[in-house]
Amino acid sequence: MDRKVLAMGTELRLHFEGAATGSGSEAALAECARIEAECSTWDPRSSWSRLNAAGGRPVGLSVEWLALLSQMKAWNHCTEGAFDPVLKALMGAWGVREGGRIPTSADLLAATGAGLLELDEEAGTARLYHPEAGLEEGGFLKGYALDRMRKTAKVGSGWMDFGGQVLAWGTPFKVNLADPQQRGQARMSLTLLNASLSSSGSSERGRHILDPRSGQPCEPWGATAVVTAEALTADVLSTALYVLGPDEGLAWAERHDVAAAFLLNDGSVRMTWAFRRLHPTLIPRETR
Prior knowledge:
Blueprint: E1 2-7, E2 10-17, H1 21-39, H2 47-52, E3 59-60, H3 63-78, H4 88-94, E4 117-120, E5 125-128, H5 141-153, E6 157-162, E7 165-169, E8 173-179, E9 182-192, E10 195-201, E11 222-228, H6 231-255, E12 259-264, E13 269-271, H7 273-276, E14 281-282
Antiparallel strand pairs: 1-2, 2-6, 3-5, 4-5, 6-7, 7-10, 8-9, 9-14, 10-11, 11-12, 12-13
Helix pairs in contact: 1-5, 5-6
């Protein structure tokens, strides 16, 4: 069974195989809708929008969202600040959602950083210390939704493509990675099995990926690709490694045994040993 819908501002495609694919797809889409309704910061009625609008006051959140945000704070620490879920103010300063603008220096970092997010599991509340600080879900929520949809669907095999991030299980699924300089052309192909592929780059949307550490847009050096068992992890790390860049990012990924590739604008490709073990096929530019 194949389905295609719009969700979280992008296209979601589902391909399920085996028994109960109809009920499985309905369950998966319902789960995606639930997550979007609770967490989308585009919707002022969501729990996360209420937290962003609370002006520094504690807001009640469910155990699920407190646990997810706790994971994101842990990733912020693990990536040495390259990934950060509290980016709303910084993105607003650069006008990422409004087509772009140049901020004043005073706008940049005061209300940015996971350290501003306090989670109180005992009280069931979250708090953003700076009144202008806010959660930005774009770097991780689709990955979380993919994992949850797979679990909820209870389908033996299939794949889902959520705005370019793919999660495949049960049977092998071949995917292509685009050339960062020629998005209509493939630069690499590989086969996924019980894994997710997430990529990040600036060739399609310009310099929209921000470095939380400096407050500046990342240099448009190319693209990252990360393959992990969980879609949430791949989603987080594809962004973090792009922020770290092809040198620092490759070193970080090797230290943590992450399957990661760095596709540079000059045509070169750098891969960790974990990524090489996936046996990717490079497609030379000169033969296309």
